[in-house]
Specification:
By secondary structure, the chain is mainly alpha-helical. The chain is built from eleven helices and two strands, in the order H-H-E-E-H-H-H-H-H-H-H-H-H.
Length: 278
């Protein structure tokens, strides 16, 4: 590896660990067995890539936050109207009893450990009663929330209605996307590398949608990179937050770092011509 100014390197290496940076220079090697770098591999390019990824993660995290808040709100609204304030405690609404019990144990723990004022006041006034869904679901993670949605019985009309409000014709696609989005969110929450990341969680892709997303159905290999699920994030944000600036923020970021190889994240050669990116 070469340096444009080696005097700056100690500063970066004293604040960013070697193995955190290693993921960004891995592709610069022309021999990954002997760890030999290709010509014109500069340390400063590694730092640029690291900074790009840091900004990229923040943009994606904000997009996921809007989805999480909307999912929580829609679950509370639709299910409470149909099945009462404590519907989440009703095993008859869920398809897998074992998963339901696991969820129940997790939510009991999260609610019991919560320091949110509305939870504390609830137990002060009702020590033997679990809080209503609009209280309890506010203190659980996206992971538990997505599993709760996935485990709702498929024949519940509310489950499909929520999927429709996210722009999907079938609940199975929303369930699948949410579980993968949770994986992406956890990567970001641990400040891990998202650029060139392999997405290990498999997810389904709808053959059709009310609004076009991509001109093709990504195959399993293509779904191992961020581009398809990032396109799905943009699509869902467009449904729940019309006028959002997500795509604009991404375009600005790509313009700030013109040397970043987007293809390493699964962006096809003609990605700007894809329906959701136009």
């Amino acid at each position: 590896m070469q340096f444009k100014d080696v005097n700056n390197a100690p500063h970066f290496l004293s604040t960013i660990s070697y193995y955190r940076l290693k993921g960004y220079w891995w592709e610069m090697q022309d021999d990954k067995v002997n760890h030999h770098f290709a010509n014109h591999s500069y340390f400063e390019d590694v730092i640029d890539l690291y900074n790009f990824d840091r900004h990229f993660r923040l943009i994606v995290f904000n997009a996921i936050e809007r989805i999480e808040v909307a999912l929580r709100t829609k679950l509370i609204y639709h299910l409470s109207l149909s099945y009462g304030a404590n519907w989440y405690l009703n095993p008859a609404l869920f398809q897998n009893p074992t998963r339901f019990l696991a969820f129940l144990g997790k939510i009991n723990l999260d609610v019991s450990n919560s320091s949110e004022e509305f939870i504390v006041k609830h137990f002060d006034n009702h020590p033997d009663e679990m809080p209503e869904s609009w209280k309890s679901l506010e203190v659980i993670t996206l992971g538990i929330l997505s599993k709760l949605y996935s485990n709702l019985k498929h024949q519940l009309p509310e489950k499909n209605k929520i999927a429709n409000e996210f722009g999907l014709n079938n609940q199975k696609y929303l369930s699948s996307w949410l579980l993968t989005i949770t994986v992406v969110r956890n990567i970001i929450a641990h400040h891990s590398r998202l650029w060139n990341r392999v997405i290990i969680n498999k997810y389904d892709w709808p053959p059709t949608s009310p609004q076009p997303i991509l001109s093709y159905i990504p195959n399993n290999h293509q779904r191992r990179k961020i581009f398809p699920i990032l396109s799905a994030l943009i699509y869902m944000n467009n449904q729940i937050s019309p006028g959002n600036h997500l795509k604009h923020e991404l375009f600005n970021l790509f313009a700030q770092f013109p040397n970043i190889q987007l293809s390493r994240m699964g962006f096809p050669a003609n990605w700007q011509s894809e329906p959701i990116w136009k």
